[in-house]
Amino acid sequence: VSLGGGWYLTLAAVLFTIGTVGLLVRRNVLIMFMCVELMLNAANLSFVTFSRMLHDIGGESIVFFVLVVAAAEVVVGLGIIVAIFRRRKGATADDIHILKG
Amino acid sequence: MHPAGVLGVTVADGLTFGVSAAMILLGALGVVAMRNPVHSALSLVLTLFGVAVLFVEQGANFLAAVQVIVYAGAIVVLFLFVIMLLGVDREERMAADPLRGQRILAVIAGAAAVSLLLVLANVHWATGAKAVAGSTTGPGSDVAKVGHSVFTTYLVPFEATSALLVLAVIGAVVLVRRHRPSDGGQQEAASQRRAAGTPGPPAPSPEETASPEGGPGATGPDAPRPGEPVTTGQGGPR
Known about the structure:
The complex is a heterodimer of chains A (about 100) and B (about 240).
Chain A: H1 5-25, H2 29-54, H3 58-87
Chain B: H1 11-33, H2 37-57, H3 61-86, H4 102-121, H5 142-152, H6 155-176, H7 186-196, H8 206-210
């Protein structure tokens, strides 16, 4: 018998918040990407926990889809980062301001 | 659901959760706090393994395997490839705050978010509604259950993910393709054009004309690109 679902959901909440704060604080786009991965993992952990609490396999299926979407997102996002780095040195989030008015 | 449920938990389960939670939180804090992106990526691996352990703990064995293979095996390696490839493993200046007060606001927003999520995490969620995708209880492994669910209830989203993956691959190829001869790295573009047998663009940039193709002073396709710091003693195209 595992621990109650509230513990897992609390852990997922804390993990999601760490990812959010990291996304807001850091300037390196790669680390911001990693913080997005942290948030996705927190959501996955919540889905699996709900799946166990509600005896519904749909939660685990959704995690499967989230993994696929995360993989696609990382591929495209890193491609964009590589393309940006090719044109300019140093691509922190503050350097990418061409669209700024 | 409520902390009273702790009493019915074995020591092994509690210990597993504790160690995994410590791994997850330490890794997450490492991702956010490390100054070197390589260290952040390795901290991310720690977090992903902790999440995989908690998946096993909750009976999602298939997802734990996928988590380790896809996330720790593919995504983090992709991150590391990009970090090493771009040479961005230099440290970030954390002291400077370009946007005044933004970090304080971020921490305040994070505290608000975590408090809200903690309230939501301790609300009784079960509504008694019947599962549409199948039950986790009953005979059979979770692989069979997830597979049955994915290939029956969620068949259309599953097919959509295949289209999504193809689009992601095409998008990555289009994004990373070099098509403008005026920016750095025209050597590789020229070699790709030669391999493809198609003529190059009509007006090469001065950098391209300065380095003749195949000449004795020409650099190979793996030479440092102009604009990047040349670490070896080899002469660059400029």
